[in-house]
Amino acid sequence: MRTSVYFRLAVCVAAAAGTAVAAEPKDDATDVRRIDGYQGIWFDLGQRSEFGSKYAGGLGTYTAKHVPLAVHAPDVGKTFFVYGGTTRPDERHLLAMVSYYDHRTDRVPKPVVVHDKQGVDDPHDNPSIQIDGDGRLWVFVSGRGRKRPGHIYRSQLPHDIESFEHLGPREFTYPQPWWRDDEGFLFLFTKYTRGRELYWSVSDATGGKWSEDRKLAGMGGHYQVSNERDGRVVSAFNMHPGGNVDRRTNLYFVQTDDGGETWRTAAGKRLETPLTDPACAALVHDYRAEKRLVYLKDIGFDRDGNPVVLYVTSSSSKPGPVGAPRVWTIAHWSGESWDIREVTTSTHNYDMGSLYIEDDGTWRIIAPTGKGPQEHGAGGEIAIWTSRDKGRTWKKARELTTGSPRNHGYVRRPVNAHPDFYGFWADGNPDSLSESHLYFTDRSGSRVRCLPYEMDHAEATPATFGTGK
Question: Which residues form the signal peptide (predicted)?
Answer without folding.
Answer: 1-22
